[in-house]
């Protein structure tokens, strides 16, 4: 098998004027050299040297950057140098000779060289700005969001080129590993792994590859089963293993993401090929043929999650440790799908491996967005095919890859400018990319673009939508139903305020109108509003405040309501979309993580700490769930969901509270809910008689302020889910409650026991060094609520101390 050695460590970086040096030997002898991490970026090297500030970045696309390394002590002979990611206009020099030129950040490049034992390797990243000024085929439309327009001609990330969306940090450098490959005896190449379930539920594994060398016995092994390797008519080696009683791979919301190692045995010597999972993916358009649903192993999946941005906008890392914090927090929030959008960059194989392990489906856009790309240029098309093959090869056998998409908002951009459909679609998304997808990953769903479908591609009532009715377009919460959403590949963007600890450490400025604060708030280029204005709209809508006045007169309280409101909005929206009878089959919030500390789109801040909205989504994403929907004069519907593999014995309790204390009416029912099923009851079925639960008939003064639905395990009495309905709005139910607290400890660590004398809204816990298992939650009088305190840097042997806040009180309670 081939031997791979990563060329990392002792690299140096030299900065020159654009075009000043033609090859490494022309670099000035006294040129200042900086230590440079590889894989890494120019911005990362400069930041380590104290010469780059990510909060106030300097431009990097106007100069040349030289990466230099010595390769010494290596055995002389032929090797291949593989460059997994060069951003972007790069020239590779081996012993002062140019051996490779690359102009595609997204495709791996390789070159054959012969080592002498004392060699020099150099990579020059040429200034991008001259390339951006180059003339290409006339564009039929121009997006406003991305600058400059010349980016459509170059295969580089759009990160750093979207003013108002992300920091203007230019991505330059060898941001993915560089490896040296020796072709030893028995080399394997062009590996393809495909795994699925047959009609009887057996696992079927097909592997094919090229092989150079001699071997008397080649066998493929998986899950204790083996099969011989055969030679196909095309000369490739192939093997098929059929595995009875295989455990399928499931998204984490619906089961276990079971994985199996795949091994090639060469003359009794095992050689790992990776891991895979067995699952089938199917597209379900719905009964009317206008929907977009995903089925895994024959089971409809409600996809919920977020759009990925980047693990670090400066470093652009691709290692397991770089991804793990974000993806584990995503998994802990109940996310079962991550979308990598076309404005970002392709992630590494480690990203897919983690998603495989965590049971997170991946919706992968190809890196195309908004532009009219020059697909009539054969050279451009060849680069597109190369990058697509590299991505799909890196994800071979990955069960988490679920959807491949031709890109983001090209169809929407053209149609919003009034162009007819013949301009939206074209060979790029309708022929080239689907051909590559079908060739290497025929097991996943391919869609041409996002959004896509309907009378216009951006209408959310057919196909795939980008839904911002609730959100940027300031529609009322009821629009979540009225829009008849089918699937939102992105939605619900707000300027989510981080926890105070993050602000104190990284953005200690007056909130909202300080220029440093506003610089971190996302906005659409050219718009007269930003996403803080959107959050303020819903703060006023849900709580009745004038946001500007509250911010001016009581900025601390303004921030508390701002933290609470976006969680309330996302919970309300997902409650509508997940209820039985909804047309929606999935929704992904915009976005998973921030790129700088501040009130960004992310549900996780740039330090890796969950924001308050993360907890709201965690509640909204539970597999076993109770939901409430206001049906007006038809009363209040109670929906119970069970997405798990087991039958659940549940107790459903419903109470209408007056003054947050006294039950005006209540009822309960024990139910047996089958796997993958749901149940809808009216409140009247639980109460046994008429009661104006939604206060729709208004016969006299209201009899209650809040309705509380509580779902508990019938055997253990563990609380599984709660839901709330405010018939006259949240402020009518705003009370100051007395909260009793008790710190307890068991074998699993510390926990906090909470009881309330009356209904309390948006309780916030702050324990330094701990992440509460729930936060920013409502608490009704009755049984105690138990919150686990998960250590995050704290010494678990020391008794935790913290504070408890509630929206109905201005006083923090010490614990």
From TrEMBL:
A Pfam family for this UniProt protein? Answer: Glyco_hydro_2_N2
**Enzyme Commission code:** 3.2.1.25
Q: Report the catalytic activity.
A: Hydrolysis of terminal, non-reducing beta-D-mannose residues in beta-D-mannosides
**Domain of life according to the entry:** Bacteria
Is Hydrolase one of the keywords? Answer: yes
Q: Which GO terms describe its molecular function?
A: hydrolase activity
Recite the UniProt keywords alphabetically: Glycosidase, Hydrolase
Beta-mannosidase-like galactose-binding domain residues are 33-176
Q: Which InterPro entries match?
A: Beta-gal/glucu_dom_sf (IPR036156), Beta-mannosidase-like_N2 (IPR054593), Beta-mannosidase_GH2 (IPR050887), Galactose-bd-like_sf (IPR008979), GH (IPR017853), Ig-like_fold (IPR013783)
Q: Where is the signal peptide?
A: none
**Protein name, UniProt field:** beta-mannosidase
Instruction: Look up and give the organism this protein is from.
Output: Rhizobium alvei
């Amino acid at each position: 098998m081939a031997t791979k050695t990563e060329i990392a460590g002792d690299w140096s970086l030299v900065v020159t004027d654009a075009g000043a040096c033609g090859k490494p030997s022309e670099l000035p002898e006294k040129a200042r050299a900086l230590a440079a991490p590889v894989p890494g970026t120019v911005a990362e090297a400069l930041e380590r040297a104290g010469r780059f500030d990510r909060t106030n970045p300097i431009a990097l696309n106007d100069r040349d950057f030289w990466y230099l390394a010595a390769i010494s002590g290596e055995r002389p002979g032929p090797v291949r140098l593989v460059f997994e990611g060069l951003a972007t206009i790069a020239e590779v020099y081996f012993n002062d000779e140019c051996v490779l030129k690359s102009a595609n950040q997204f495709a791996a490049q390789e070159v054959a060289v012969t080592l002498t034992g004392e060699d020099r390797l150099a990579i020059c990243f040429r200034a991008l700005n001259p390339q951006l000024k180059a003339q290409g085929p006339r564009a039929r439309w121009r997006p406003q969001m991305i600058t400059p327009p010349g980016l459509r001609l170059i295969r580089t990330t759009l990160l750093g080129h979207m003013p108002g969306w992300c920091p203007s940090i230019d991505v330059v450098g060898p941001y993915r590993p560089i490896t040296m490959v020796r072709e030893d005896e028995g080399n394997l190449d062009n590996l393809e792994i495909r795994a699925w379930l047959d009609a009887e539920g057996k696992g079927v594994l097909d592997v094919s590859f090229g092989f150079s060398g001699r071997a008397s016995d080649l066998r493929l092994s998986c899950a204790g089963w083996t099969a011989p390797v055969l030679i196909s008519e095309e000369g490739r080696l192939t093997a098929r293993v059929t595995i009875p009683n295989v455990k399928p791979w499931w998204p984490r919301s619906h089961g276990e993401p079971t994985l199996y190692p795949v091994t090639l045995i060469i003359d009794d010597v095992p050689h790992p090929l990776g891991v895979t999972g067995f699952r089938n993916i199917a597209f379900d358009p719905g009964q009317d043929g206008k929907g977009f649903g995903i089925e895994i192993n024959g089971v409809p999946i409600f996809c919920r999650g977020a759009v990925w941005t980047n693990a670090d906008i400066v470093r652009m890392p691709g290692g397991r440790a770089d991804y793990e914090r974000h993806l584990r927090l995503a998994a802990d929030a109940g996310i079962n799908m991550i979308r990598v959008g076309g404005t970002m960059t392709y992630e590494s194989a480690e990203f897919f491996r983690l998603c495989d392990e965590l049971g997170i489906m991946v919706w992968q856009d190809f890196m195309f967005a908004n532009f009219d790309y020059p697909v009539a240029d054969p050279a451009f098309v060849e680069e597109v095919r190369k990058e697509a093959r590299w991505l799909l090869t890196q994800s071979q056998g990955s069960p988490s890859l679920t959807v491949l998409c031709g890109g983001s908002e090209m169809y929407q951009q053209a149609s919003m400018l009034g162009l007819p459909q013949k301009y939206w679609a074209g060979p790029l998304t309708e022929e080239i990319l689907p051909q590559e997808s079908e060739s290497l990953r025929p097991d996943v769903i391919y869609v041409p673009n996002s959004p896509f479908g309907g009378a216009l591609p951006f209408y959310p009532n057919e196909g795939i939508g980008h839904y911002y009715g609730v959100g940027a377009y300031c529609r009322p919460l009821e629009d979540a139903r009225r829009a008849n959403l089918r699937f939102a590949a992105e939605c619900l963007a707000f300027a989510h305020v981080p926890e105070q600890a993050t602000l104190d450490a990284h953005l200690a400025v007056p909130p909202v109108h300080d220029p440093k604060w506003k610089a971190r708030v996302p906005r659409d280029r050219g718009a007269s509003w930003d996403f803080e204005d959107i959050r303020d709209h819903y703060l006023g809508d849900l709580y009745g405040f004038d946001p500007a006045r509250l911010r001016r007169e009581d900025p601390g309280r303004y921030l508390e309501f701002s933290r609470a409101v976006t969680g309330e909005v996302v919970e309300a929206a997902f409650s509508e979309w997940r209820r039985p009878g909804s047309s929606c089959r999935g929704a992904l919030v915009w976005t998973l993580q921030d790129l700088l500390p501040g009130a960004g789109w992310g549900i996780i801040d740039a330090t890796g700490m969950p924001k308050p909205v993360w907890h709201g989504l965690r509640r909204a994403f539970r597999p076993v769930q109770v939901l409430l929907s206001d049906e007006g004069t038809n009363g209040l519907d109670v929906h119970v969901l069970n997405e798990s593999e087991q039958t659940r014995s549940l107790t459903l309790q419903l109470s209408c509270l007056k003054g947050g204390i006294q039950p005006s009416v209540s009822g309960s029912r024990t139910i047996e809910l089958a796997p993958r099923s749901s149940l809808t009851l009216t409140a009247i079925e639980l109460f046994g008689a008429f009661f104006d639960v939604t206060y729709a008939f208004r016969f006299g003064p209201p009899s209650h302020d809040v309705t509380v639905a509580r779902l508990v395990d019938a055997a253990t009495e563990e609380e599984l889910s709660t839901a709330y309905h405010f018939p006259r709005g949240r402020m009518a139910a705003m009370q100051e409650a007395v909260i009793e607290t008790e710190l307890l400890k068991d074998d699993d660590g510390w926990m906090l026991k909470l009881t309330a004398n009356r209904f309390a809204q948006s309780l916030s816990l702050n324990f330094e060094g701990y992440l509460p298992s729930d936060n920013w939650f409502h608490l009704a009088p009755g049984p105690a609520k138990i919150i686990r305190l998960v250590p995050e840097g704290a010494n678990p042997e020391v008794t935790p101390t913290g504070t408890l806040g509630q929206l109905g009180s201005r006083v923090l309670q010490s614990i």
